[in-house]
Write a structure and sequence with these properties.
alpha/beta, TIM Barrel, Non-ribosomal Peptide Synthetase Peptidyl Carrier Protein, Chain A, 11 strands, 43% helix, globular
Length: 374
């Protein structure tokens, strides 16, 4: 089943996609108009690689703090962890000082990231009186200084993008600040802008405003725009692309524990009937889980891989016919032996999987932190 699903994606890559333009940023052409977003604690090289093998054409790292990147040592080693399968990939950085952000951006470009993305979207403010992430939308002069410093520091051959939210809040003043920031990004040669269709104050509550994305698209003809917010299924991905006109759908929570969403979205874009899609079989699930843990072990070592993969296994369990039992078993794992025992107990044979509730991915808690652990 896995080989069939991936084979469908590979055949689709070279076809035109009905009604949806496949964009490029700088020298990078997208095979499909969607990508895997960066999520703290989840989207490391292991998650990105498993998704790549199942149709993900582009991925973004977790938001990496500039001071960690610039400090060198172990923090830098973890920050620049990319592999041969992990291209094209964007290194996303976050900070509050133009000088250190510029240094970090250059380090990421020199380390081999295909794109450098500035995070002006994270809604969590962990340091009192320190603007970074989405809180830059209240300190636009500082945000503009960072835009310019980073673009000057990074070689022109490396495209730069920004990630932001539709505004800090719903006030007219906040809307003006969003307009100033995004216009400055275009003026300084940034190749694309990703807009999360919630305000910073909303965090991850309420519905994302897709009409705002459509308005932003209409105001910026010829520009490359990524849209994000409420993409939990392959159907959501296609609907955002068609309803808003954004160039790329930025899949965040919907991709956690669901690396099959990319190939499914590609099939729908090519005109397949949604009824023809099938949830991943038990065999497909086992293959992804085994790959994911093996990669996590390689990157993090057994102890840390066990901790990280507990929450990842919980998300994969949504596709299992005995989801509640599998979830409980994953919660209890600590080691490779525990992980293997869960696979041997619940993932033998190749029975059909099940579709989770469409909003099940919304249970992922992204409200605590946006940046990668040090």
């Amino acid at each position: 089943m896995f080989s069939v699903r991936l084979g469908v994606f590979l055949r689709l890559r070279d076809l035109s996609i009905n009604g949806v333009r496949v964009p490029s940023i700088g020298p990078i052409s997208f095979a499909q108009p969607f990508c895997q977003a960066g999520l703290a604690g989840y989207s490391d090289r292991a998650m990105r690689t498993v998704a790549r093998r199942r149709g993900c054409p582009y991925a973004v790292t977790e938001a990496l703090l500039d001071v960690i990147i610039c400090s060198g040592g172990e923090g830098l080693r973890k920050s620049v962890d990319i592999g041969p399968e992990d291209h094209p990939v964007a290194g996303q950085i976050m900070g509050s000082e133009p000088e250190t952000m510029a240094r970090a951006a250059k380090i990421m470009a020199d380390a081999g990231f295909d794109v450098v993305d500035l995070n002006y979207a994270c809604p969590v403010k962990k340091i009192k009186n320190k603007a970074r992430g989405g809180h830059m939308l209240r300190d636009v002069p500082r945000a503009l200084d960072i835009l310019r410093a980073c673009r000057d520091a990074v070689p022109q051959r490396v495209p730069m993008t920004i990630s932001t939210r539709r505004s800090f809040d719903d006030s007219p003043e906040a809307a003006d600040m969003f307009d100033a920031l995004t216009q400055a990004a275009w003026d300084n040669g940034y190749a694309a802008i990703r807009v999360h269709a919630r305000t910073v104050e909303q965090k991850y509550l309420g519905r994302a405003s897709w009409p705002f994305l459509a308005e932003f698209r209409a105001k910026n003809p010829g520009r490359v725009i990524f849209g994000s917010g409420d993409l939990f299924t392959a159907e959501d991905v296609v609907r955002m692309l068609r309803e808003t006109g954004v160039d790329v759908a930025w899949i965040a929570r919907g991709a956690i524990g669901n690396p099959w969403i990319f190939a499914d979205a590609a099939r729908l874009l090519a005109g397949d009937d949604p009824a023809s899609l099938h949830p991943p079989s038990i065999g497909e699930q086992r293959a992804a889980l085994a790959e994911h843990f093996a990669l996590a072990m390689e990157i993090h070592g057994e102890q840390l891989a066990g901790r990280r993969m507990r929450k990842m296994g919980i998300k994969y369990s949504r596709f299992h016919p005995r989801a509640a039992d599998v979830k409980a078993a994953f919660i209890a794992i600590h080691s490779l032996r525990d992980w293997q025992a869960v696979l041997d107990r619940f993932y033998t044979g190749d029975a059909p999987g099940v579709w989770p509730a469409p909003t099940a991915a919304d249970e992922v808690n992204t409200d605590q932190s946006c940046e990668a652990p040090a």
